[in-house]
């Protein structure tokens, strides 16, 4: 029920049952399960130990994934805590490390997290809901499904490397109920499920078909645990033959089942005995016994509950009716013929996967052995067993809790695509041969887990009636759980359509864009088309030098900024290592290497992170000039951080949440904010947030800000913003001429293109003017051009860029064009300028109206012996001068009344006119 | 036209002489094409160095993938756009450059803000098809989109993009100069190779750039300041009017060219041309003058005479406001004269209708024998008409609440214009003329 989580419906968390254990030292009670109910709705979800759950994270759509290892609360009952084992989503693994994977990560892939110590104790109230997690074999391909709610585990991730993870540590089924055979190998289970999609349901709505699929699981699961008798398998098979959509995959499944059941029992026993485990043989025996009992109990329950299923058709009543109703939907065509065999009918519905998984994991002798036992048990015997072994039921409860929320996700509907099913079934077959090796590991895991459940048996011994009731409750819980996950997974797309998966609306829980599906135009990245002919490489020394001197070419090292580099490096490094946050303000005039230095620092730090000297971190960069509005900063940060798009307000909220909520496995983030002054808003909330986040305890955010002015915090920031920015400041001084010289030399890197004097001239000139390294490089580049195009090199000139070339370049770039422009102006224009100066002198002001100047102009014309010009012409002359900005004019609609000012100094004008 | 000419050249083989009318039509069309800047000159005239500099620069972008930025600065009509067009024409003759170079033309007068400019860039780069049928998003998305596109490229593999920003100075007035910053930043970083060519007539354009934008600009400026002498100017006139060798009717062309030569040597014509040269060196105003001459060529008079040139020159220099005065009624003219006297007395201080009316009444009482007094409303109407013609305009800020009669006004005419108009005013009463010329009202 996805929108429940979205709407922040208040959830109520309650312990189920009595505490399992009490820790006197810490005064905590351990519980076996936790019930989550949504306020106002009658249903509850039950979380039990060993289950995979989603935990509220900073990103609503991508909650954290974890497995519950312990549930406990304090004696007051107020605090509910859970100890979890984390799983990392693809998005949580830094992109640089994802490369280590050697393949494209699947969007639904998660990694078993075993990295550095991180908070594994979470508030139980942050648990959202259970989630289906499946373990995949290292080499196994990801199932071709569009089920967004199932996550896959293949590897473990310890923040440095990926390792193949044994399935035992992942799959929950093995842990709470050691009696069951090792965890289902989930991957193969998925694809075969299509055959299960109800044959009768084809005309019915999809909603109904979903139900039929997902609800009946409990029964089926029990059935499978209760181990398949060969006979049952046969009947199953027979039934499946009835169904119109019978697929070869299911055939294959039943075949494997038969094969498995034919195996001799006891292999498993032997394995357990031989396996390097702590438990004694007796324990193992007990365990086996329990397994058997449980399986029996399950069968019993299944059978006992099935008749009512057929009777109650109204859904949402209570207890097992809910699961029943879909069953009846599905089975209507068959029921008449088969009478009371509903329970068995349920078997084909159930993704036989679970059974298969068990088989595949352990090479499945145990089901066979258990199957034998169950086959022998008549209903009467079962009752007997039920009466005798109440304690086993307790475990059963656990089991139900355990599996119910998980399985629905696995059985979410998918189209019965024959092709994919065939493909997958062949994969399954292949895998079945490969799985023997895992046995030892699996059984080991089970035994460890068994300890957890011994107390539960002891504690939860209650009357049979109670158990029955509880069972009913559980069923309803399961219904909720099932519904939750089902609805949660419901995405508005046609089922089974592969191509559409990339187009799911962004709101779906798993809205990671798979980078491998660029066929939809939406995610296509714009690109300048590539050229047909390759760009030419520099042919001679001068061209080589020019390429090296281009500002864009990234130098091997950044000379002359060693101190600044060191300061920034140690600042950021210390913050990353400590896992804290901080701000730094870097100022300096343009072209002094601020951004370049920070980038260099980041390159080094990223390299260090790659070789594991420091923990990995995110580096993101925003530039105030590269956004249209200060609030776009949020959008860009969010997009670079999580590659999701949002409006500015929403992005701000998401970021706020991300940086203020504790997230144990979060990496440090280094944020570079270039051109900070442009993020100024009237309320300064963008800047405020940027500097406030690092101060949050859990943010682990380092903010480096860059701007031109040294006193920016004092000038434009209000106190609370400036205070948060702190006093970690650094200012980049303009380069001195020696530094500039060194920069050019290091860029040229032994390409001999410049005379020594020429270099010195450039760097001295630039250092005197601005200390802007860009300017320096541009001048050098222009000088090489001038050198190249100057007259054919005489033998003495040696082809190097000399003083004369540099002088010419300097003149071109720094000399003002005003004087030349005046010299090149027409006679009347020059006269007008003189008239302006004459009028200024007369008035003693630096401003005059056109009319006044025009009188002077007429007089000057007569003096010069020229025919006086008309007012229109005079205005035209004046406008021309104004267009070049030799004069500053008022808008021309004022005509003769417009005021005129000089934009050049009078001396310059007189100098230019005199030189004529 | 071209087809027509080819037919002509075919005919040329048969008849060396064309009917005079046809020759005239040919001359008209050929010279008009030349004078209206529709044909680029074959070689740069007087701007060889700039041409070479720009060509080399753009060639390096097109072929080597080197990012560059450059400004072409020069007064209006100096041939900036022409230079760029010539360079592009020469550049695209190179097959390699032609294949790879992408062009984006922007004009500061059309792309008045960055949002429009970004859309235009996207359109011209044909990037909108990448977006598919998705309606183009917000300004922010647009910018991110374009930056992304440019960032994706790199020096060696992407096609170079040539950004031509006409009226570059207007782009500097956009908010935060976002577009300029980003374009120049791309040109200074290892992204898709681009060349930014700005065209402007403002000499102080660099001072308009914000310092971080300025730092990213390479500071290359190509100045187009013509140091043209009058002899060169005359030669230019002659070459502009001369017919080429391949004119169909060789005889006619010969005669035409001879007549042009004599025209340029004629004293009065030279005088007129010098006046033009003194006023402005740019070729656009010259072309207007020559166009006026050309339009006077007819079958009956198949040559340009110096008189035509003088007449055209007179038309060019005619004073616009003085012409308007010819159309005024005698009352309105009298009011103008009264205003002139007020201006003389009060040294340019603003006046209102009552003052003007009083001045006019004084004139009527003292000297007039041909003029009669008018009703106040008639005077008022005449006054309003003058305001509509913008011969007078209200003083800034005084228009608010004062009555019309007392609203302060200024005269938008110079004395010389009034006197000139009076000289030519048809049937102007002599007493009015005398009144105008007398020193004090």
Automatic annotation (TrEMBL), chain B:
Quaternary data: Component of ORC, a complex composed of at least 6 subunits: ORC1, ORC2, ORC3, ORC4, ORC5 and ORC6. ORC is regulated in a cell-cycle dependent manner. It is sequentially assembled at the exit from anaphase of mitosis and disassembled as cells enter S phase. Interacts with DBF4. Interacts with POLQ.
GO molecular function, one term: ATP binding
Native source organism of the sequence: Solea senegalensis
Pfam families: AAA_16 (PF13191), ORC4_C (PF14629)
Function: Component of the origin recognition complex (ORC) that binds origins of replication.
Record-linked PANTHER family: ORIGIN RECOGNITION COMPLEX SUBUNIT 4
Intracellular or extracellular location(s): Nucleus
Domain AAA+ ATPase as annotated: residue spans: 66-227
GO BP annotation list: DNA replication initiation
InterPro entries, A to Z: AAA+_ATPase, AAA_16, ORC4, ORC4_C
Signal peptide: none
Gene Ontology cellular component annotations, sorted alphabetically: cytoplasm; nuclear origin of replication recognition complex
Keywords annotated in UniProt: ATP-binding, DNA replication, DNA-binding, Nucleotide-binding, Nucleus
Primary location group: nucleus
Family: Belongs to the ORC4 family.
Name of the protein: Origin recognition complex subunit 4
């Amino acid at each position: 029920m996805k929108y429940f989580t979205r709407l922040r419906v208040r959830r109520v968390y309650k312990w189920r049952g009595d505490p399992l254990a009490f820790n006197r030292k810490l005064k905590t009670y351990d519980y076996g399960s936790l019930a989550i109910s949504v306020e106002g709705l009658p249903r509850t979800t039950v979380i039990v130990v060993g289950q995979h759950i989603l935990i509220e994270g900073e990103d609503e759509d991508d909650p954290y994934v974890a497995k519950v290892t312990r549930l406990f609360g304090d004696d007051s009952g107020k605090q509910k805590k859970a100890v979890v084992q984390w799983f990392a989503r693809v998005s949580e693994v830094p992109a640089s490390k994802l490369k280590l994977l050697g393949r494209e990560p699947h969007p639904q892939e998660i990694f078993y997290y075993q990295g550095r110590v991180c908070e594994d104790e979470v508030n139980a109230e942050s648990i959202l809901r259970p989630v289906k997690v499946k373990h995949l074999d290292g080499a196994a391909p990801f199932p071709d499904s569009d089920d967004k709610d199932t996550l896959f585990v293949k590897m473990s991730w310890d923040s440095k490397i990926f390792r193949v993870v044994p399935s035992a540590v992942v799959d929950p089924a093995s842990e709470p109920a050691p009696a069951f055979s090792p965890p289902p190998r989930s991957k193969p289970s998925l694809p075969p499920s299509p055959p299960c999609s109800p044959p009768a349901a084809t005309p019915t709505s999809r909603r109904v078909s979903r139900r039929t699929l997902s609800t009946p699981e409990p029964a089926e699961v029990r059935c499978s645990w209760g181990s398949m008798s060969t006979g049952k398998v046969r009947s199953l098979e027979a039934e499946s033959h009835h169904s119109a959509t019978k697929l070869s995959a299911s055939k294959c499944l039943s075949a494997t089942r038969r094969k498995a059941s034919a195996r001799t029992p006891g292999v498993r026993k032997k394995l357990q005995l031989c396996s390097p485990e702590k438990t004694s043989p007796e324990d193992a025996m007990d365990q086996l016994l329990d397994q058997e009992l449980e399986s029996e109990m399950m069968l019993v329950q299944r059978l006992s509950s099935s008749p009512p299923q057929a009777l109650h058709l109204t859904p949402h009543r209570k207890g097992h009716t809910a699961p029943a109703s879909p069953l009846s939907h599905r089975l209507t065509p068959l029921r008449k013929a088969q009478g009371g065999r509903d329970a068995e009918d349920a078997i084909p519905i159930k993704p036989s996967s679970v059974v298969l998984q068990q088989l595949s994991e352990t090479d499945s002798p145990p089901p066979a052995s258990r199957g034998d036992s169950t086959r022998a048990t008549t209903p009467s015997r079962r009752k007997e067993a039920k009466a005798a072994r109440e304690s086993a039921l307790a475990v059963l409860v656990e089991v139900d809790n355990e599996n119910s929320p998980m399985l629905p996700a696995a059985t979410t509907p998918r189209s019965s695509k024959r092709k994919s099913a065939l493909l997958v079934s062949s994969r399954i077959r292949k895998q079945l041969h490969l799985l023997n090796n895992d046995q030892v590991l699996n059984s080991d895991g089970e035994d460890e887990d068994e300890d957890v459940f011994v107390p539960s048996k002891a504690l939860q011994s209650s009357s049979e009636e109670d158990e029955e009731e509880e069972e009913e409750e559980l069923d309803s819980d399961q219904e909720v759980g099932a519904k939750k996950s089902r609805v949660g997974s419901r995405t508005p797309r046609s089922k089974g359509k592969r191509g559409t998966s990339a187009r799911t609306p962004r709101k779906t829980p798993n809205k990671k864009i798979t980078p491998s599906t660029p066929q939809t135009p939406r995610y296509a990245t714009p690109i300048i088309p590539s050229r047909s002919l390759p760009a030419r490489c520099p042919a001679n020394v001068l061209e080589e030098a020019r390429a090296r001197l281009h500002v864009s070419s990234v130098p091997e090292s950044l000379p002359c900024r060693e101190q600044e580099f060191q300061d920034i490096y140690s600042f950021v490094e210390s913050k990353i290592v400590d896992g804290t946050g901080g701000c730094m303000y870097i100022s300096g005039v343009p072209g002094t290497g601020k951004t370049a230095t920070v980038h260099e620092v980041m390159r080094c730090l990223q390299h260090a992170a790659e070789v594991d000297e420091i923990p990995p971190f995110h580096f993101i960069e925003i530039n105030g000039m590269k956004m249209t509005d200060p609030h776009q900063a949020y959008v860009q940060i969010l997009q670079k951080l999580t590659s999701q798009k949002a409006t500015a307000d929403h992005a701000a909220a998401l970021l706020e949440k991300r940086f203020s909520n504790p997230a144990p496995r979060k990496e440090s983030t280094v944020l570079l904010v270039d051109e900070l002054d442009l993020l100024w808003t009237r309320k300064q909330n963008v800047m405020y947030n940027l500097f406030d986040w690092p101060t949050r305890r859990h943010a682990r955010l380092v903010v480096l800000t860059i701007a031109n002015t040294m006193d920016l915090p004092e000038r434009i920031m209000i106190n609370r913003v400036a205070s948060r920015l702190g006093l970690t400041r650094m200012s980049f001084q303009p380069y001195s001429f020696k530094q500039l010289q060194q920069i050019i030399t290091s860029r040229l890197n032994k390409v001999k293109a410049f005379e020594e004097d020429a270099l010195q001239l450039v760097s001295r000139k630039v250092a005197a003017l601005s200390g802007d390294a860009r300017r320096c490089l541009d001048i050098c580049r222009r000088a090489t051009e001038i050198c190249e195009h100057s007259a054919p090199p005489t033998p003495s000139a040696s082809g190097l860029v000399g003083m004369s070339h540099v002088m010419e370049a300097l003149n071109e770039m720094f000399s003002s064009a005003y004087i030349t422009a005046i010299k090149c102006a027409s006679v009347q224009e020059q006269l007008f300028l003189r008239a302006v100066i004459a009028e200024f002198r007369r008035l003693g002001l630096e401003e005059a109206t056109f009319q006044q100047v025009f009188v002077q102009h007429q007089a000057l014309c007569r003096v010069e012996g020229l025919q006086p010009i008309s007012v229109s012409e005079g205005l035209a002359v004046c406008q021309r001068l104004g267009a070049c900005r030799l004069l500053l004019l008022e808008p021309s609609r004022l005509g003769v009344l417009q005021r005129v000012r000089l934009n050049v100094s009078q001396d310059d004008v007189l100098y230019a006119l005199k030189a004529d | 036209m071209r087809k027509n000419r080819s037919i002509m050249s075919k005919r040329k083989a048969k008849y060396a002489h064309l009917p005079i009318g046809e020759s005239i039509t040919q001359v008209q069309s050929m010279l008009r094409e030349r004078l209206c800047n529709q044909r680029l000159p074959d070689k740069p005239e007087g701007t060889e160095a700039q041409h070479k500099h720009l060509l080399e620069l753009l060639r390096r972008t097109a072929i080597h993938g080197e990012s560059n930025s450059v400004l072409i600065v020069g007064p209006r009509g100096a041939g900036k756009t022409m230079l760029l067009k010539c360079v592009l024409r020469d550049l695209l003759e190179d097959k390699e450059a032609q294949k790879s170079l992408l062009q984006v033309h922007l004009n500061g007068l059309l792309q008045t803000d960055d949002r429009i400019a970004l859309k235009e860039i996207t359109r011209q780069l044909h990037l909108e098809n990448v977006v598919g049928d998705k309606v183009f998003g917000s300004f922010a998305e647009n910018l991110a989109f374009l930056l992304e596109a440019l960032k994706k490229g790199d020096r060696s593999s992407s096609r170079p993009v040539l950004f031509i920003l006409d009226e570059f100075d207007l782009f500097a007035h956009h908010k935060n100069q976002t577009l300029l910053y980003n374009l120049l930043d791309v040109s200074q970083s290892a992204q898709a190779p681009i060349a930014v060519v700005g065209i402007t007539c403002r000499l102080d354009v660099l001072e308009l750039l914000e310092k971080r934008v300025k730092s990213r600009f390479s500071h290359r400026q190509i100045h187009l300041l013509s140091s043209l002498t009058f002899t060169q100017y005359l030669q230019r006139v002659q070459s502009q009017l001369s017919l080429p060798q391949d004119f169909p009717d060789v005889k006619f062309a010969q005669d035409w060219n001879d007549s042009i030569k004599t025209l340029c040597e004629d004293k009065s014509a030279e005088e007129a041309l010098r006046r033009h040269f003194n006023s402005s060196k740019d070729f656009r105003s010259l072309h207007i003058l020559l166009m006026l001459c050309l339009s006077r060529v007819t079958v009956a008079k198949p040559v340009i005479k110096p008189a035509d040139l003088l007449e055209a020159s007179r038309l060019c220099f005619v004073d616009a406001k003085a012409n308007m005065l010819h159309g005024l009624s005698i009352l309105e003219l009298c009011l103008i004269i009264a205003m002139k006297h007020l201006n003389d007395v009060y040294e340019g201080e603003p006046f209102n209708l009552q003052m003007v009316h009083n001045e006019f009444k004084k004139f009527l009482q003292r000297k007039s024998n041909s003029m009669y007094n008018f009703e106040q409303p008639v005077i008022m109407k005449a006054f309003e008409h003058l305001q509509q013609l913008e011969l007078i305009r209200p003083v800034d800020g005084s228009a608010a609440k004062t009555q019309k009669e007392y609203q302060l006004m200024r005269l938008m005419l110079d004395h010389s214009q009034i006197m000139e108009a009076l000289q030519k005013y048809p049937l102007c009463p002599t007493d009015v003329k005398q009144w105008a010329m007398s020193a004090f009202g």
